[in-house]
């Protein structure tokens, strides 16, 4: 009896403690890297209303994790490691749900968290929650993925085996092929060489399996029946002679276009019964279009066109421009160029490589490209009026940058400016050239360094580019000891693999220094003891010098010396 009474008393004490000071030790486990974790704390509304809730972690020097006052959250004394990482429901005090949300939990957050509820300093409730943040274990999905892949491979092997077995049995009854061509070719071959016996009453039918089947070609016992084919294919299809003896039922379709795309079916009937069949998927691609961009001022531009080598000698190659207006650019016929057939705008400016019929390289070199040369160029190869191959090239000629630099003879250096945008590739070549009075290589930068051996001897040792021009994009050239004869047009070209990336023209104007010239002439005549000329030059020099110094006050013209 005494033991029962003691137990009853202890239960009553525990009940009172739970009623006034709730102390629960719960545990929550999460993995590091999880978005957030919820530390639960539930009390009655009568306890939470008008109360202050403090979430704390006693192991820290500053234990305060989160504080909720009746007026709202109070972050004044919050531990810095929890800044912007904790939150409670806005209606927590009204509902009694005092749970705390901790975002982005880390291993260092593992500890015991206490939720304390006070009102006017009186302790009403206190709950402890154990948080354990573990390292995320190695993912299981790679092993699951490997298992799935193995199962799929096993299933695939089984499927392939079954499919191969079935295909082997039906190979004679059903065959599939794919043919790809480019729009503009003369013809395309849809191949079919069956292995079945073609003796007897044989009917061959080529059709296109669209939503409504279209009859493409019909042959009965070796005789074509054009009246049975669709009008879109009339006059465009052909099968070989003695096709039943040779066993080649391939179909030649001339002038394939985009509308001819689809699946073509060749069905063979023997004595009115199905014998075998093959499907050929025909894909007709659009014209090949290449785009070339150059800057006005380059010497030439290459319009590429490479086709199958070994063309017949009697074909004609025509380069035409269609946009902005049609013009004949170049004609190659009878193994030679036909300049009388090209437009006068391009006469003397076009050239093709040697033996284009043998090499298959029909590329055209257009010299001195101008802005007006921009447009769409077509290279067509035809024979007896039928086009065999065709290719389009879009040419864009951009306006070249031009800048004028003026200096006076006698200055130490002259800067020819050229600043490009962005960082240039390391394998580009930068070439400064002079176009007049004669073409000369002024400076060459290649393979990351200057190439003095390639420049003209007039400029050797007198030119310099800035450090790391590829990285900075500053391709300016410094010319030392510029002379009057250095004046002219300078062109800087940036290119790689024959393709021009950027270009600029700099016109260098050098004004002659009359004073220096007179001094040299004066000294030279003095050495020759030419007294009369020496005195005359001295007089002119002194007179002009005085004239320059007094030009602001004396406007009297100089008298000519007779």
Automatic annotation (TrEMBL):
A Gene Ontology term for the protein's cellular component: external side of plasma membrane
Principal location listed in the UniProt entry: membrane
InterPro entries tied to this protein: Ig-like_dom (IPR007110), Ig-like_dom_sf (IPR036179), Ig-like_fold (IPR013783), Ig_sub (IPR003599), Ig_V-set (IPR013106), T-cell_Activation_Regulation (IPR051713)
Pfam families linked: V-set (PF07686)
UniProt topology in membrane: Single-pass type I membrane protein
Residue span of region Disordered: 65-85
Name of the protein described by the UniProt record: Butyrophilin-like protein 2
Organism whose genome encodes this protein: Channa argus (Northern snakehead)
């Amino acid at each position: 009896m005494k033991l029962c009474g003691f137990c009853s008393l202890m239960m009553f004490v525990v009940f009172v403690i739970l009623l006034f000071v709730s102390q629960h030790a719960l545990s929550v486990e999460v993995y590091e890297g999880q978005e957030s974790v919820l530390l639960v704390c539930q009390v009655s509304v009568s306890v939470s209303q008008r109360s202050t809730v403090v979430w704390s972690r006693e192991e820290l020097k500053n234990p305060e994790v989160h504080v909720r006052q009746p007026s709202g959250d109070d972050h004044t004394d919050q531990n810095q490691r929890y800044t912007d990482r904790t939150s409670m429901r806005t209606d927590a005090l009204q509902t009694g749900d005092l749970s705390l949300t901790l975002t982005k939990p880390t291993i260092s957050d593992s500890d015991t968290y206490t939720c304390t509820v006070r009102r006017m300093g009186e302790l009403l409730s206190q709950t402890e929650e154990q948080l354990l943040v573990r390292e995320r274990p190695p993912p299981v999905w790679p092993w699951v993925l490997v298992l799935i892949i193995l199962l799929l491979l096993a299933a695939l092997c089984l499927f392939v085996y079954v499919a191969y077995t079935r295909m082997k049995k039906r190979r004679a009854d059903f065959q599939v092929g794919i043919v790809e061509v480019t729009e503009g070719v003369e013809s395309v071959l849809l191949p079919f060489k069956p292995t079945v016996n073609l003796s007897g009453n044989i009917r061959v039918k080529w059709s296109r399996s669209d939503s409504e089947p279209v009859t493409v070609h019909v042959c009965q016992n070796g005789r074509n029946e054009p009246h049975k084919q669709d009008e879109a294919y009339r006059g465009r299809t052909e099968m070989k002679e003695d096709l039943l003896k040779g066993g080649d039922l391939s179909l030649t379709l001339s002038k394939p276009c985009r509308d001819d795309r689809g699946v073509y079916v060749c069905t063979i009937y023997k004595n009115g019964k199905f014998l075998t069949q093959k499907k050929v998927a025909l894909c007709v691609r659009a014209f090949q279009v290449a785009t070339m961009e150059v800057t006005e001022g380059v010497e030439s531009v290459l319009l590429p066109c490479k086709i199958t080598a070994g063309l017949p000698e009697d074909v004609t190659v025509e380069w035409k421009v269609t946009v902005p207006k049609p013009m004949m650019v170049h004609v190659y016929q009878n193994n030679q160029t036909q300049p009388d057939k090209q437009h006068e705008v391009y006469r003397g400016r076009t050239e093709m490589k040697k033996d284009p019929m043998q090499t298959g390289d029909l590329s055209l070199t257009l010299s001195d490209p101008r802005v007006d040369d921009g447009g769409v160029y077509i290279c067509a190869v035809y024979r007896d009026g039928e086009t065999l191959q065709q290719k389009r090239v879009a040419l864009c000629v951009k306006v070249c940058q031009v800048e004028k630099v003026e200096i006076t003879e006698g200055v130490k250096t002259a800067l020819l400016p050229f600043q490009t945008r962005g960082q240039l590739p390391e394998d580009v070549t930068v070439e400064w050239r002079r176009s007049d009075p004669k073409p000369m290589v002024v400076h060459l930068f290649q393979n990351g360094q200057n190439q003095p051996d390639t420049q003209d001897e007039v400029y050797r040792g007198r030119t310099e580019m800035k450090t790391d021009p590829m990285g900075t994009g500053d391709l300016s050239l410094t010319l030392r000891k510029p002379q009057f004869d250095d004046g002219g047009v300078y062109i800087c070209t940036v290119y790689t693999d024959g393709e021009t990336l950027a270009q600029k023209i700099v016109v260098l104007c050098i004004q002659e220094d009359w004073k220096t010239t007179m001094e040299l002439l004066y000294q030279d005549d003095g050495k020759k003891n030419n007294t009369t000329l020496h005195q005359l030059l001295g007089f002119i020099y002194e007179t002009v010098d005085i004239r320059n110094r007094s030009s602001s006050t004396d406007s009297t013209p100089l008298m000519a010396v007779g």
